[in-house]
Structure formats: structure tokens, C-alpha cells
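step 4 of 6: structure.
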Amino acid sequence: MSLEAAVHSLDTLKSESMKSITWNGESLILLDQTKLPNQETYIDCTDWRQVAEAIKKLRVRGAPAIGVAAGYGLILAAKEAIASASDEVTQRANFLTFANTLKETRPTAINLAWAIDRIVTNIVFPSDAMVTALPLIEAEAKAIDLEDQRLNAAMAKAGATLFEGKKGIRILTHCNAGALATAGLGTALGVVRELHANNQLERVYADETRPLLQGARLTAFELHHDGIPVTLLTDNMAAYAMQQGLIDAVIVGADRITTEGDVANKIGTYGVALAAKAHNIPFYVAAPYSTFDFTLAKGSDIPIEMRSADEVKCFAGTPTAPEGVEVLNPAFDVTPHELVSAIITEEGVLTAPYNKSITDLHYRFTKENSSIVSYLRL
Ligand code: MRU
């Protein structure tokens, strides 16, 4: 199936209104996810700084989505760099400063750095001038967007192979790894959508995902909106649900996966994996190649984003903790590979030993896709 055909056929599974990122040729239109589920508000970004702010504030969020948004943000950055000076050296220097600022907005999800490095290394470095690079940056940003849609589609099919011959499947998920978090159907929720389309899914149990409630505000919203049965539970109910025999498998997304198979994902994922292990429930991670960090082996080396204390001390702007109390607010945790039953990728399902299956995957990418070779060599 051609890339366009694959994307088109999967669009039938995904509601159009769920499109969180749209490039209209002049500006980047982002669905403001901080306002969901109460308001469907769009931000019209005409300046790369608005894109940076949107990524930092989680208006656009989810590892693949922030990579796609940053790609488009670089078109705006290139335009400003060209207008900022008459000489090519200053234009390029200004562009690289803007690109670095965008890259630093969120440290854990590698898709962000991956998308920016891909454009800088493949397009900007080899171009003789920013003016000639500009149309190529736009083409590469669109390619990253379209590619993410195709990767989601392939992951959905690959993930479904884990459930062949099964019906009435009950999946627990954490955070939002759906259409809102990607340019396509979602990673974990792409698999869910495929199972639903195959009449194999009974329902999804969605952890609410403290402190910012991506599970309640986004996953429950997205699935409910698209008519996929979903039951919302608070994070501290996940182990109970497993103990009650309500969960057949866990599927989550990822922000970064090391070569040993350690997985950084939304805070609380590690606890879910431990509970799944205790109940003999498979714990699956769905992620495309752009989420793998082929330069890191140990999960302990993944930088973990620490966020504002107010996210924990307040609920919808109202204080829920004493003023001045100390807060710990890591946005992500790392699930060690021993707890991961399989990793669903667009190339198929990877199993332990991950240092071998991920090395094989890396080898296939470098061999088959020359456009990412330069990135992998960085
Ligand atoms: O802080 P967020 O909302 O960006 O965190 C998102 C997650 O942790 C997702 O599970 C992950 O990025 C995978 S999205 C396909």
C-alpha cells in the first residue's frame, strides 16, 4: 500500500476534528490541549516563539506531536532568520540559535530533538544559504508529519498481531498516546483503534494521569469522542483494576527508549508496569523509531523533565496543598526493560533481549533510510 493510501485508509478510523497540528502554508495551527475537554480552541502560530511556548506549556504535547510541531516551527524560524540580517552567516547563526531554543523547550521526549536535528543536519548544514534552505525545510517538516502518520498506521497493524484470535480485550493505558499526541492515529491508541475496528476490543481503562490529567482530559475525551468504549479511573485504581481481573494488557506510549529497552514515559508508567508484572499482565510499549535513542543504553541516563510545583499544589488554579510546601514533580519516569513484555514499532514487535532487537532495528534504519543516517551519526 502506498504511503498516501495507508494514511487515507487510516483517516477513516480517526476523527478529522481530532487533528491537533495543521500547517496552512503560512502559519501553524495548534489545537490548545490545555483547554480540552471543555473548549476546542486553536492557536495560530506565526512566530516560532509561539510554537516554543505551546510546547513548553503542553498546548501541544506527546513525543511525536512535539517533533512534528517543532519541524513546522523551524519554517517560521528560518523566515525570521532570513529577515534578521543581510548576510548569510548571521542568518544561519540566528537560525541555529532559534532552533536550539526550540529544542530546549522539553528535554525528555527525544522526538523533539530528533526532528530538529534531522532538519538542521539534512537540510540547513548542506544548504549554501538560508534562502535556498527555506523551501527544503518546509518539505522536510511536511515529510516528518506525513511519516508520523504512516508510522502510526504501521504500528497499529503490528500491535494488533499481539492479540490475534482474541476477542473482548480490555486494555489499560496511561497518559495520552493517541491522535492528540501524534500526527496520526496515535501509538498506543493506534493499536487500540485497530483492535476496535477489528471488533476485538471490549474497552479501554484510562488512568487519569496526575498531575495534568492527560488521561482524563485527553484519552477519555479522544476515545469517547470516537465512540470507543472507555472507562476512566484514577491512577491509584490501576492495581485494583488488575487485581479484579479487569485488564488483559497494558499499552502505553514512550518519550524515549534506550538501546537496552528502558522506557521513559509519563510519570506513573513505572508503577503501572510493576503492578502489571505482579498480576502477570503483559505490559506493551508502542513507539516509532523516532522515539529510540540509539546513543543511550541505560534508562538512568535519560534526562527527566522537572516541572513547576504549582502543577501538583493546585487543581484548575485552586490551591490543594499548603502554601510553601515542598513538591516533587518529575514529568516522566523510566520503566526498566525487564518489565516490558514487548515494544511495538512500525517495523514489527520487538521482544527481549532488547539490546539485540533494538540494535537490529537500528541497523535496518541506517541501511534502509539514508535520510536519518546523518542524525544517527551525531
Ligand atoms: O507530558 P506529555 O503529555 O507530553 O507526556 C506524553 C507522554 O508521556 C506520552 O505517553 C508519550 O509522549 C507518548 S505519545 C505518543
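step 5 of 6: annotate
 - Residues 258 and 298 are 6 Å apart (CA to CA).
 - Residues 1-13, 370-378 have pLDDT under 50 and may be disordered.
step 6 of 6: archive
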